[in-house]
Every structure is written in structure tokens, then in C-alpha cells.
Amino acid sequence: MKYDKEEVNPIRDDRGARIFGARNTPIAKQNPDVLTPPSTDGGTISNMKWPFDLSHTRVESGGFSRETTVRELPISTTMAGVNMHLEPGAVRELHWHKEAEWAYMIKGSARVTGVDEQGRQFIDDVKEGGLWYFPSGIPHSIKGLEEGAEFILVFDDGSFSENSTFTISDWFANTSKDILAANFGVSEEAFNDIPDEQLFIYKGRVPGPIEEEMPDNVNETVPNPFTFNLIEEEPIESNGGRVWIADSSNFKVSTTVAAALVEVEPGAIREMHWHPNQDEWQYYLAGQGKMTIFASSGKSRTFNYQGGDVGYVPFAMGHYVQNIGDTPLRFLEIFKSDHFADISLNQWMSQLPPYLIKEHLNVDDNFIKNALTHKKCPNVTFDK
Ligand code: CO
Ligand code: CO
Q: How far apart are the CA of 315 and the centre of ligand 2, in A?
């Protein structure tokens, strides 16, 4: 039989067979290690991948919003994500929610506002590579600046939904006018033109400099800023790439979300490791990667990721991320924690009596001498 060269099939050496039935070839090509897993994969493991392009999109006047939650990716119980775009001047309206909100600016810039429980105010502009964090229940807004803004939002609960936040327009629409009049000390007519349902995202004007936009009586500012310029921090450099870390040690307000921005060069690997504190929620910003998740008891499964995909690693499971493309692989590792923590397989092994390693793995002295250092191979390690 003549095979189409463009066809991909689950064939490994003398195993497997060509698929006769209907195909979705683009998806098969994007996921070669799912179609034909490495022979070392085994057992049944939950799905750990969700492309935002399969999420429902809220198409709004001024932008869009789409979410990846426990409903799209059932394993992702600790965190949920939203990909949102705001046109220049467009606003994600004044709102709050039960979950804390962490964000990374993918492209463009936005102006964010917030007020804490003591009435202290905050306003700042966030550029590409910048972050914000609003603690649980703190009211905030986001406005696209000159070029608009696209960002990824992460919430510290997988059950979060962008469709069930508390918005200012929704509350006004759901309050009778005599109560509004009594609350603000004005006549009911003041509320003749309020929206009759929530705005969520709306088109607005591109604002001027912050100083010119503030009200007359501004309270003092919050003690710990709600924003952080991650990309201007000094990264940890290693042979195969670099990492930028933001957690409550440098981004003080971010007490429930810790994050790392990871860049892996072509051919390099984010080394084999696990996290001793929490599940890992990933967002792939660019490039092509492969990750195998080791779940103990002979179980492991490999997935392929590309820009726009969400990945997930349950607490304590071993994993690596390899760049399998020819451009840098960039992704975010995010944890519901006040601090970033990982255990490097290499570092662990390098701190043990060599005989113990040799007894376990039947490796020779050459391995002990050469392998257990981060200096030689093109990998990305978090060890300084
Ligand atoms: Co929010
Ligand atoms: Co990890």
C-alpha cells in the first residue's frame, strides 16, 4: 500500500498501524507524542493539555475573553486562566471576585486600578512582560492603552468563571433607584441613564498620563504595589535558557500565586524536576514543547504544547519540558503558593553518596563524574 507522505500514523518500529478511518490530521501533527507515545509512557493518566483555541470566546464590544477552567481541563482544580484582549481605550469594567487575580501582559499595555480594604488607592500602567495581582475581594479595573492590551489572567481556584464576577454596572442595574439615591445623596433622576445590564467589556477613550486623570481627594497609596515589572528583573541564566521568578519574596502582594517565566533554547530542556508544594498551571507563550509527566506506579504520559496552550502538572509529579522546535520556547509556570519551589533531580542526586546512586541505577564512575552537574548539558535549571 502506498502511504501519503503527509500522513501521520500511530506506528513505532514494528508496532501500530495506519489509520483507515476519518482523520483530523492538523491535530495529529500538533500532537505527535500523543498519537505515537514514547514506548516508556504507560498507564492511564488524566488529560494535561487544553488549547485556548478550543475554549468558548465571549466576543464583546472592545475585545474578547475566553477561559480555561476545571470545566475545560478537569484536572486543573487549583487554578483557572483567562485570555483577554482589550482594544485601545476598551475597559474590563470595575469589578471584584472571590478569587485572587494574577496577570501577565502578553502584548500591548494597560492601565489598572485598585483600592484596598483600608481605602488606599492604586493605579499603574503595565507593559509587555509585566504582572499584576489583586488579592481576593479587592475591586479593580483594566483599560487598554494606545496599542490595546492582551494578557493572561490566572485565578487561584480552578472553578473560577469570568462570567460570575461582581461588576459595578450589574450591581447598579440590580438596585432600585430610591436606594441608589439614598446611598449617594442625590435625586433618583441622576440614575436615569445607567446601563440596564452589566457592561463586562466596553469601548472607552484612551486616557492621558495618570497624574492628569486622578480625582481631587486621593487617599494614600497601597503599601505593596499591585503591579510588578517581571521582565525587567535579572533572570537566572543557565546553559539552555533563563528564568524570571515572581513570588511574595519580590512581588510582596502576591501571597497566593507564585510564578516563573521560563525560556528554553532550541534543543534544550527544562530539567527533570518536581514541585514540593503545589500543582503547576502552565501557559505556553511561544515555541513548541514536549512534556512527560511521571505519576508513580509505572505511569507516565507525554504531551505536546505550543503557543496558546495550557498545561498542567499535579502536585509532586515528576516532569521535564523539552524545546522540540527551532525557536525559543517560552512558558509560564504558575502555582497557588506564596513561594516558588522546585526540586531538581540532578541536584538531589549530586548531594548523595556516589555508591548509593551506583547501587540504584547501575551507572559507572563516569556518570557520577560527568552527569550530575548542570554545567555540561543544555538545560534550564532554577539552581543558582
Ligand atoms: Co478581575
Ligand atoms: Co515544573
A: 10
Q: Say which residues have a Cβ less than 8 Å from residue 55's Cβ, sequence separation at least 6.
A: 66, 67, 68, 72, 83
The alpha helices in the chain, defined as continuous H runs, are 25-30, 32-35, 168-173, 177-184, 210-213, 345-350, 354-361, 365-370
Complete domains list, the chain, with CATH: 50-228 (2.60.120.10), 230-383 (2.60.120.10)
Cα 123 to Cα 226: distance, rounded to the nearest angstrom: 9
Q: Are 232 and 305 in contact (CB under 8 A)?
A: no
Residues 6+ apart with CB under 8 A from 257: 100, 102, 133, 154, 156, 247, 334, 335, 336, 337
pTM above 0.90, yes or no: yes
List pLDDT tens digits, range 289-315: 999 999 999 999 999 999 999 999 999
How many angstroms does the Cα of residue 56 sit away from the middle of ligand 2? 27
Taking the CA of 291 as reference, the closest ligand is 2
Whose atoms come closest to the Cα of 48: which ligand? 2
Q: How close is the Cα of 331 to the center of ligand 1, in Å?
A: 22
Catalytic residues: 333
Neighbours of 378 (CB within 10 A): 15
> How remote is the CA of residue 299 from the centroid of ligand 2, in Å?
18
Give dist(CA 145, CA 143) in Å, integer. Answer: 6
Distance 337 CA to ligand 1 centre (A): 19
Residue pLDDT, tens place only, 314-370: 999 999 999 999 999 999 999 999 999 999 998 899 899 999 999 999 999 988 888
pLDDT at residue 143 is higher than 50:
yes
Q: Which ligand is nearest to the CA of 135?
A: 1
Asked if residue 1 has pLDDT above 50, the reply is no
